[in-house]
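Example complex used in Figure S2.
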Amino acid sequence: MNLNYLSKKSSHSIITLFIVITINFFLFRVIPGDPFAMIAKAGNLSAEYKEELSTLYGFNEAFPIQYVKYLRQLFAFDFGLSFKYRKPVLEILGNRLMATLLLAFFAQLFAIILGTVIGILSAAFRGKKIDVAALGFALFIYAIPAFWLGIVLLSFFSVKLGILPLNGMVVAGLSHPTTWAYIKDVVHHLVLPVFSMGLAICGGYAIIMRGSLLDVLTEDYITTARAKGFKRKDIVIKHALPNAMLPMVTIIAINLGFMISGAIQIETVFSWPGIGRLVYEALMARDYPVLQGAFLIISLTVIIANFIADILYGYLDPRIKYE
Amino acid sequence: MKNENILEVSNLKTYFKIKEGIVKAVDGVSFSLKKGEFLGLVGESGCGKTTTALSIIKLLADNGYIEDGKILFKDKDLTKMTESEMLPTRWKDISIIFQGSMNALNPVMRVSDQIVEAIQLHENISDKEARERVTKLLELVNLNTGLIDSYPHEFSGGMRQRAMIAMALACNPGLIIGDEPTTALDLMVQAQIIDLINDLRKKLDTSMIIISHDLSIITEICDRIVVMYAGKIAEIGTVEDVIFNYKHPYTEKLIKAFPNIYGEREMVESIPGFPPNLLDPQKGCLFADRCHKKIGEICEKVDPNLIKIGEKNHMVACHLWGGKDE
Amino acid sequence: MSSNINRKKVMKKGIIRFIDIFKENKMGVLGFYIIVFFLLVAFVGPLIYSYNPQEFAKGGLIAPPTKGFPLGTDDMGRSILGALIYGAKVSLMIGIFATLISVFIGTFIGIVSGFTGGKFDSVLMRITDGFMVLPKLPLIMILAALLGSSTRNIIIVLGLTGWTGTARLVRSQTLSVKQRPFIERAVSVGAGKGYIMFRHILPNVFPLVFSNTILVAAGAILTETTLSFLGLGNPLMPSWGQILRGAFTSGAVSIGAWWYFVPAGLCVILLVLGFALLGYSFDEILNPKLRRH
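Predicted assembly (942 residues):
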């Protein structure tokens, strides 16, 4: 693996991480209003608790000192205590993150497959009806708010048809006799959220795939492949696709930020116990430690995912792999 | 084969349909190629030389079509063949070397695999045998066989072109078309490739059509030259006849446009004006408004036919030398 | 100065030519008409169909469409058709103003960064990257919650978070314009940096910015809708997003009251589509790299 590329991408990620941490810090300190008011908004806190918190977060002290304290806490994985639950923020984040990753992973998979297929068909039959329909579909999808798609599908499949559950990750309060029963229940609840979220984000993939494939099909080596006597279908699949898929890896990474937005919306609509919904709940409850922690974790996930995508790209593209 | 011509192109007309109308890219081109012969196709950009080549292997763009004419390859008329009928002929009988651009070879496939797939597409041989063939081919083109499993980006421009030549030879085709095979290379490498081609010529009996706008390359490799202008043939003959005994004013200009390294240091003449619009070609000779040897109204009214002058099949389409009806 | 008069003439010619090409672009024309339609609905609509968000319980609660209420009623008995018409203006205004802020910031940063170059540019772009990586929706939600949900704040928040794409685009365009000889000439004549950036670079960057603006507007409208749905909008200024929030929180979804949420969603989709079609068509026309050939 190309060390130069690896180190460049690593340093880039770390720098971005620091910028994010810093922005995160300022976000909650520089907002108008005094920090005590923020804490006070959370409900009735005892005077000693307020005292504790101000020393903990260093509200009385100068910014640079606060910043250092903040960094120190972060590196000790101390995200503070939730105002609402009085539990360590990290603990709360942990469970919710898992639920979101589950949802996000399958939604992303669905979106990539669907988007890629549509993009390929569109490019292979450029200008014909399939292409126009596919482009229209992609544009339409882009314009749909993810939550609305969720609502509509929910009302149709859950309310009207009653074949899929209304909310949650498992049926509330039900104890599952076996692990398999648990898995089945989760999957049952996953279907609609995954389908909604996947559908909501596949539009971008379709358009990128189409563009990428169209670009590749104009390249000289495709003409060479045709001159060799390959059938058109073989050329698209064996020669064009491997090249066209490369930019997709980068796009998937870029799309991650968009996915967070989708996750928040879908999790809210379907009451899915994920980190997206946590942001919403914490916001409503003015639970700032949780909010700050969630925000940081989400950003961190995006940075890591981008990094993985960069590494994957470096591995897949022989031009970078063998430098 | 009945006669000794491996390729006979008769009155080929290839047109392209665009929004504004029909572009007559190739409009009545005829020439033949003997076994083992090297033919050069020369002319400005847009004169139809690449389109002629692509017509032979039926690799035109979607809006291109052969309007008329015959292309006889080993007595089979290629114009009458459907796309699926053409597939076995491609590469096995006729292969093509493109301009050595960065992306003439698939960047994500190893060079060996690319040649192997060409062989295995047309012949039923094992992977091992195919790889041995590839090794021999690389030796033939003076490439280090240790590089057999490299990716194209690891090769220099000259090496890539050699790899393309090796690939073109892979199925022992009767005809190889080289479309600007040396254009993207720097001069030293160009010389190497030319030497390679001449060297291969002695070892194999493949025929070649070399397309280039660079007359000097053509003169070093080819036996005969076809000079094309605006989709038609202006002049055709052996290298000596065309270079030293040119008849067509366009040929004259083309030759004079290349500075002679041994000659006097004089201003290189360029050809004034622009190539004609092939969408709505004017009547008469298409070179008329740029021609410095126009003889009169006939040049603007009547399109000259190709007529024979001299002995060795030297032909020219110009009213200076006759060229009315035959 | 004669150069100014020439400038105006050239610009006018350019605009006329642009309009001619634009008329041929079916996608763009469709987008244009959609936007015009909603502008009419927003500004002329209220004159035809009266609606007052403060008046409650005129019809039944979450009642299906009837003669008096062509699109049914919401959870407070108000006409949904009325809400849609009234909300058009809110959704449009918030979207457009937020976009203007974003594009202004983005263009400014893009030109300054691209033109100044060097370390300043690198640092600024790194910060922009950091901003781009930040998950946008959570950031907007947090800012909106912390600042308070007045309409003005929503516009500011959306404006402050939507500039990164524009900045990157403008910067790369600035970099290529910077290379052109007339810039070198201006510098050698002694023109000040600000003057060059404003008088020379900006006009050349403008066409790209224009098409980008429309696409940013599409995104802003979508984001505002989402924000309102999540309860962070201004409940006193009912945009389409607010209608959808009402539908969700009142349980209209679970009882299948489609008239409450389907039409509002369709309006959002249509308007966003309109902007997207227009924006992409502009991009096609103005961006030389995208020409078909």
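The CA atoms of residues 188 and 231 of chain B lie 32 Å apart. The longest strand of chain B covers residues 5-18.
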